[in-house]
């Protein structure tokens, strides 16, 4: 993608669209990062790219279609990061699961526009759509982790792996939403980082299920 300086005096760079589709996605990500998940219109994306308001419709049906594409790409990157953190369950499943949680927070912090498109701005995916498949892929990785954690338990004592995966996802998403994306902080500072807080939550949860293991939980807040 080639960039050139906006001559309008706004100080904003504009896109020279050798690839209009990619330019539209990049512009929408910029606007979401700047203004939040509801922070752009289709017309604003076109204006930022430097094309007519009708031009984006050659690539996307509407604003929602653009959001779906952004969310799909975000989930693809997100799943790749979780797979890398899981590392086939090494050095052992519980530690690998904690690493996945930390990777979740890293992604939310480093890719806030994609994260917003995935979880805050995108419409509910249609069944069997590419977005539905890619979002399910990330959950499937957490379900694999849950199955590895449960492997040594008696079958009649194993909790449903999908339930465990959803609980872990909820912990990760809650910490990310509260401490990484709000921008407001808490009424009083914490004595723990978001990563340590999440790790403590995962260890408490898994110990409650009887999995055991893991390092000592950090000191209380």
Automatic annotation (TrEMBL):
Ranges of residues in domain HTH tetR-type: 18-78
DNA-binding region(s), residue ranges: 41-60
Gene3D superfamilies per UniProt: Tetracycline Repressor, domain 2
Key words of the record: DNA-binding, Transcription, Transcription regulation
Keyword Protein biosynthesis: no
Superkingdom: Bacteria
Leader peptide range in chain numbering: none
GO molecular-function terms, A-Z: DNA-binding transcription factor activity; transcription cis-regulatory region binding
InterPro entries named among the record's database cross-references: Homeodomain-like_sf, HTH-type_TetR-like_transc_reg, HTH_TetR, MT1864/Rv1816-like_C, Tet_transcr_reg_TetR-rel_C_sf
Record-linked PROSITE patterns: HTH_TETR_2
UniProt name for this protein: Transcriptional regulator, TetR family protein
Organism: Candidatus Competibacter denitrificans Run_A_D11
């Amino acid at each position: 993608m080639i960039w050139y300086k906006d001559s309008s005096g706004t100080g904003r760079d504009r896109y020279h669209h050798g690839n209009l589709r990619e330019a539209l996605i990049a512009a929408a990500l910029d606007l979401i990062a700047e203004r939040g998940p509801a922070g752009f219109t289709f017309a604003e994306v076109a204006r930022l790219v430097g094309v007519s308001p009708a031009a984006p419709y050659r690539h996307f049906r509407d604003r929602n279609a653009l959001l779906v594409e952004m969310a799909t790409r975000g989930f693809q990157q997100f799943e790749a990061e979780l797979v890398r953190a899981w590392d086939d369950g090494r050095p052992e499943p519980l530690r690998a699961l904690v690493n996945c949680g930390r990777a979740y927070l890293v992604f939310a912090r480093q890719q806030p526009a994609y994260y917003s498109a995935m979880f805050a701005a995108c419409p509910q995916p249609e069944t069997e759509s590419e977005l539905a498949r890619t979002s399910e892929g990330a959950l499937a990785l957490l379900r694999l982790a849950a199955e590895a954690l449960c492997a040594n338990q008696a079958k009649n004592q194993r909790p449903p792996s999908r339930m465990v995966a959803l609980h872990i996802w909820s912990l990760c998403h809650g910490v990310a939403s509260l401490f990484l994306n709000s921008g407001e902080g808490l009424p009083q500072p914490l004595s723990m980082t978001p990563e340590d807080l999440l790790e403590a939550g995962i260890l408490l949860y898994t110990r409650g299920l009887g999995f055991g293991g893991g390092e000592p939980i950090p000191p209380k807040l």
